[in-house]
Amino acid sequence: LNTASILVNGRPRRTVDVLDRGFQYGDGVFTTIAVRAGIPLFLDRHLDRLQRDCAAVGMPWVGKDTLLREVEQVLTNQGDGVLKIQLTRGVGGRGYRPPASVAPTRVIALHPSVSYPASHEQDGVVVRLCSTPLGINPCLAGIKHMNRLEQILARSEWGDSDYAEGLMFDQDDQLVEGTMSNVFLVRDGRLLTPVLDRCGIQGVMRSILIEAARGLGFEVYECRLTAKELERADEVFLSNSVIGLWPVRRVEGRAYEIGSITRRMREWLKTSTQQAISAGFPG
Amino acid sequence: LNTASILVNGRPRRTVDVLDRGFQYGDGVFTTIAVRAGIPLFLDRHLDRLQRDCAAVGMPWVGKDTLLREVEQVLTNQGDGVLKIQLTRGVGGRGYRPPASVAPTRVIALHPSVSYPASHEQDGVVVRLCSTPLGINPCLAGIKHMNRLEQILARSEWGDSDYAEGLMFDQDDQLVEGTMSNVFLVRDGRLLTPVLDRCGIQGVMRSILIEAARGLGFEVYECRLTAKELERADEVFLSNSVIGLWPVRRVEGRAYEIGSITRRMREWLKTSTQQAISAGFPG
After folding, report:
1. Could A146 and B22 be called an inter-chain contact, meaning their C-beta atoms sit closer than 8 Å?
2. Separation of alpha carbons B110 and B2, rounded Å
3. A contact test, residue of B147, B173, B238 with most A CBs within 10 A
4. What distance in Å separates the CA atoms of residue B171 and residue B168, rounded to the nearest whole number?
5. Which of B57, B139, B156 is facing A98, going by the closest CB pair?
6. To the nearest whole angstrom, how far is the Cα of B143 from the nearest Cα of chain A?
7. What are the phi and psi torsion angles at A167 (to 5°)?
């Protein structure tokens, strides 16, 4: 990545202040967006979630117009990639206490596309169960914030490429999400996904798929799920904004078919993505 | 702060790479050290904890000699202040997954002294109870890591200066610590402090005071404590490496005397601090 691909507070550079609260405390929020043919997919929804997440951690909102302008600038003449927007509480304050007047730092970075095997989407992935638990904290639940050590420890549990993802459980053994994705189960024709009111990240792709599934006439339940429900599921799939949707073909020893609902959702997403690309910026 | 007060990987500067995992994910650990007359107090213990914390999050240790050299460089000709050492997992990796070969980033920054009222140490402080809970996660418990949003949200609960600190409870209503300090209760002549095996930070000053109290012949128990034990305590005090020891004279509606054990520990720390200053670098 050269400096041209990163804007910090609107200026091309690739450094931030050591004293930025993002670096001091992970005091910020972020989102990660797939870019196809220069179009940031579902950008509006990502900006909406950023705004919600800023409110949730008590940070002022920098404004959609500013972000739209800077995203467009970073994406000029770019093809495919991954766009990451970070908003931090900026520099200042006394220890953990935020400053009286917050000037958020915004970092907009275009990264190269991540090259996952095409088979992940086509034939499904093998997933493991992580032993690192997610702490329960309703104050932070759902927010895509910059405190991500739990995911890092979980992702450090395995190094081989046999596993494409690991599933995480909370301190009460409830299934929550993958280290970088949300998870859906299908059982008796209905979709089930963990309710994220105590921990986990409310993925933009998760919301898109929930709405889409309901639009297609499926029942979707956000609920408490355990390893038992995972074991009993007819189908399992993962989602995030960069990978889209990956069917799961195995979780540890348990194999799954890529069933009709997973295929239907994958097809819907493919079409929807094409429409977003055709619609052009801001996608 | 000018650049002379900060070293990043041994060089005077005040920026870090946007892609540093410390800024991306809060993927690092830190410690905060009181500096008196150019001497970093209890430096050895801080470096020991840093080393333990690096191991706990799976980061390579940068080495004591390197840190000692750089700390000495930052402190040259300095008087009082607060020294913060941050060690992050550096740049690289694919998403949350750490890179195969980690080159940690080290940031050594000398901040001006924090000017708390002298009465805090002398006459005690008024403390509130925070509603922001601490999530329980044994994998992260005790570690002074850079994921500190819980403390920030808790510290954002109040803005007036009536309260010097706020106490935090975990998701199971167990007393854990202050937003920036550890907490000790005295009951029937014994010291009680929350056991930090599920959340919280193992403060260097906390360890020092536990050892010192035992050395002075007091019984010290690390145990599970609730609001009830707090209410029933004869004495309460707070500790961290920068404030030293603050007696608590009130928690919400409950008043406390500055009792004999609190006074004894405060006296011990004063003497011990003077000895550390006299002993000179590395303190």
Report:
1. no
2. 10
3. B147
4. 10
5. B156
6. 11
7. -90, 145
Three-class SS of residue A117?
coil
How is B119-188 classified by DSSP, letter by letter? HHHHH-EEEEE-SSPBPP-TTTTB--BS--HHHHHHHTT--STT-SEEEEEBTTS-EEEESSSEEEEEET
For residue B212, give both structure tokens.
Answer: 């010192």
Can you give the length of chain B in residues?
283
User: pTM to 2 decimals?
Assistant: 0.97
In a mutational test of the A interface, the residue from B1, B23, B85, B110 whose CB has the highest number of chain A CBs within 10 Å is B23
Return d(Cα B27, Cα B59) in angstroms, integer: 10
Is residue A194 within 8 A of residue A136, CB to CB? The reply is: no
DSSP assignment string, A215-283: HTT--EEEE---HHHHHH-SEEEEEETTTEEEEEEEETTEE----HHHHHHHHHHHHHHHHHHHH-TT-
Show the low-confidence residues of chain A (pLDDT under 50): 283
A23 reaches B (C-beta below 8 A)? yes
Q: Cα separation of A53 and A47, whole Å? A: 10
The answer to whether the Cβ–Cβ distance between B180 and A152 falls below 8 Å is no
Per DSSP bridges, beta strands A125-129 and A182-187 are: unpaired
> Distance between CA A126 and CA A255 in Å, rounded?
9
pLDDT of residue B78: 81
Q: What is the pLDDT of residue B167?
A: 98
Chain centroid, CA B39 distance in Å: 18
Alpha-carbon distances of B210 from A28, A92, A106, A125, B139, rounded to whole Å: 35, 33, 43, 50, 23
Pick from B114, B147, B199: CB nearest A147: B147
Mark the ranges of chain B whose per-residue pLDDT is less than 50. Answer: 283
Is B183 near chain A, with CB under 8 Å?
no
Residue B247: phi and psi, rounded to 5, are -65, 150
Q: Do B146 and A98 touch (CB under 8 A)?
A: no
Cα–Cα distance measured from residue B140 to residue B143, given in angstroms and rounded to the nearest whole number? 6
pLDDT digits (tens, 9 = 90+) for A61-89: 999 999 999 999 999 888 999 999 999 99
Residue B134 sits at the chain A interface (C-beta within 8 Å): yes
Give residue A261's identity as a one-letter amino acid code. Answer: I
B147 with B171: CB under 8 angstroms? no
The pLDDT value recorded for residue A225 is: 98
Residue A240 in tokens: 């995030």
Question: For residue B2, what pLDDT is reported?
Answer: 52
CA of A189, closest CA in chain B: separation in Å?
A: 33
